[in-house]
Amino acid sequence: MDEEAITIRLTRDQAFVLSDWLYQVMFQSDDLERIVHDRAVWSPIYAISGTLDKTLSEIFMPDYGPRLEAAKGRLRADLYGGAGESTAPGQGGNGRSRSHSASLRSPRP
To answer: Which of 15, 37, 45, 65 shows its CA 20 to 30 Å from the CA of 53?
Structure first.
């Protein structure tokens, strides 16, 4: 079996936003089981999440929410050329805005 490590490069904003999404899906809801039916996929998901958590100091900062929204805004601008609020597929499948969900996440120790 080939166990050569793979490197994935993300900008800090991408890593921060992905970390928040993974946290929401994995720890704030039961969405992971609905989204990922094959538990073998959970192994790389947990590896990515753990790596992001070890790398990002932003997740421990008291201004987590505003930093997250700023990062999302920059990513949307890069992706959509500065166009508004759309987050494309699945913006708020649960009826809540992501900014509301993000504000509920407290920094992890």
So the answer is: 37
Structure tokens at 22: 């993974």
pLDDT digits (tens, 9 = 90+) for 24-71: 888 877 777 788 888 899 899 999 999 999 999 999 999 999 999 999
Picking from 94, 80, 77, the residue whose alpha carbon sits closest to that of residue 31 is 94
Instruction: Tokens 């790596």: give the residue.
Output: 51
Distance in angstroms (rounded) separating the CA atoms of residues 40 and 5: 17
Which token pair is 9?
A: 């490069």
Own/partner long-range contacts of 26-33 (Cβ < 8 Å, ≥24 apart): 28/101, 28/104, 28/105, 29/94
Q: Is 31 exposed, middle or buried (0-12, 13-18, 19+ CB in 10 A)?
A: middle
